[in-house]
Structures are given as structure tokens and as C-alpha cells.
Design a protein that fits this description.
This protein is α+β, with helices and mostly antiparallel strands and 136 residues long. It is built from 7 helices and 4 strands, in the order E-H-H-E-H-H-E-H-H-E-H. The N and C termini lie close together (11 Å). The structure holds 2'-deoxyadenosine-5'-diphosphate and magnesium ion.
């Protein structure tokens, strides 16, 4: 089994889409290990998005992810679950996300793309430890 970190971003919570996102994850056969509505601080955002520090969109990303509560979740499934989640999420830019994916069905703007999912098992372990220490 493998665990990955998923975040329903502020736009998703504001639009009442957390149920839709969680429902898709559960219907796929994946299991929630932890889930909590939290407001991410600037410091935690900077650690979580450390790989993007210095990029032109970094400041906007931090403003966005800290603007209102998010639903942070640890999701468990078979080995490779992070890839399953990434496939379900669709492309980073919702304009390019395939229909049937979460972003392809529920989003249109790059800056408001509904969901975060870890991009590797190493990222998953690092990110889970930020939000739910001990659960990776
Ligand atoms: P993903 O969320 O698909 O893992 P990422 O890790 O490359 O994508 O980027 C994190 C978030 O930053 C992404 O969800 C939206 C934003 N972002 C990425 N690239 C961007 C860009 N070129 N312009 C504006 N925002 C961007
Ligand atoms: Mg990423």
C-alpha cells in the first residue's frame, strides 16, 4: 500500500466541491486515512511549495493557497496511488485537462485548479509529514 497527500484547494472549498472530489476518490476505491479542514499559513505554504520558490507564480500561489480553508487529506491505495491521483486530477492547467478528470470537469483557470496531489512517493512522504506527522 502507498499513501499520498491530497488537498482540496481554497477554490474547491469555497465552491462546495469537497464532497465531489472526495466522492470521486472514494468511488475509485481509494481510502481516506486522514482529512481535516485547515487554513494554511504563509510559512507552511512556503515549505509545502518549496520547489516553486523563486518562480514567477510563487507569490500568487501562496496568496491563493492561504486565502481560505483547504481540505487536507491523506489517501491510501495500492502502490502507485500517487499516479492514480495525478491521472484523476488532470493537467495542471485546467484548460488542457481532459474531460473526466477533476480539473477537466471542475476548473478553467490555472490559478484556481481545485486540487493538489503529490507528484512522487518521496513528495508524498515529505508533504504528509508537513500536515500529518507520523502518517506517511
Ligand atoms: P501541480 O499542481 O499539477 O502539481 P505544479 O506543482 O507544477 O503543478 O504547480 C503547483 C501549482 O502552481 C499549480 O497547481 C498551479 C500553479 N502553477 C504552476 N505552474 C504555473 C504557471 N506557469 N503559472 C501560474 N501558476 C502556475
Ligand atoms: Mg506539484
Amino acid at each position: 500500500m502507498e499513501r499520498t497527500l491530497v488537498i482540496c484547494k481554497p477554490d474547491a472549498v469555497e465552491r462546495g466541491l469537497t464532497g465531489e472530489v472526495i466522492s470521486r476518490i472514494e468511488r475509485r476505491g481509494l481510502r481516506l486515512v486522514a482529512a481535516e479542514l485547515r487554513t494554511i499559513t504563509e510559512d507552511v505554504a512556503a515549505v509545502h511549495y518549496a520547489e516553486h520558490q523563486g518562480k514567477p507564480f510563487f507569490d500568487d500561489l501562496v496568496v491563493f493557497i492561504t486565502r481560505s480553508p483547504v481540505m487536507v487529506m491523506v489517501v491510501e491505495g495500492p502502490e502507485g496511488v500517487h499516479k492514480v491521483l495525478r491521472t484523476m486530477m488532470g493537467a495542471t492547467n485546467p484548460m488542457e485537462a481532459a474531460p473526466g478528470t477533476i480539473r477537466g470537469d471542475l476548473a478553467i483557470e490555472m490559478g484556481e485548479n481545485v486540487i493538489h496531489g503529490s507528484d512522487s512517493p518521496e513528495s508524498a512522504a515529505r508533504e504528509i509529514d508537513i500536515f500529518f506527522p507520523g502518517l506517511s
